[in-house]
Amino acid sequence: MAIRTFTAVLHKEEDIYVAECPEVGMVSQGYTIEEAIANLKEATELYLEEFPLPEVARPLMTTFDAIVYA
Asked: Is 43 contained in some domain?
């Protein structure tokens, strides 16, 4: 057993938060950010029990600005 760090990407849809783990492809949700992350963690751990991932480098993540013509 080992502890690995994964990414959680969150966005709000109406009254819930949707959390996605891009490294694994898991998605979960919750009424708060904390609940969404906790649900994503649980779903990811259960998935990885059955389908372990090989050790890979952690992805880099950043943001950028783009001009949007409305």
From this structure: yes
Nearest-angstrom CA–CA distance, 36 and 13: 12
Tens-place pLDDT, residues 18-69: 999 998 999 999 999 999 999 999 999 999 999 998 877 777 778 889 999 9
Model pTM score: 0.82
Cα-based angle 16, 4, 41 (whole degrees, multiple of 5): 25
pLDDT at residue 36 in the model:
98
CA dist., res. 26 & res. 48, Å (int): 10
Characterize the bridge pairing of strands 26-30 and 9-13.
Answer: unpaired
Q: Is residue 3 part of a domain?
A: no
Domain holding 15, by residue range, is: 9-50
Is residue 69 in a domain? no
Please report whether residue 28 resides in a domain. yes
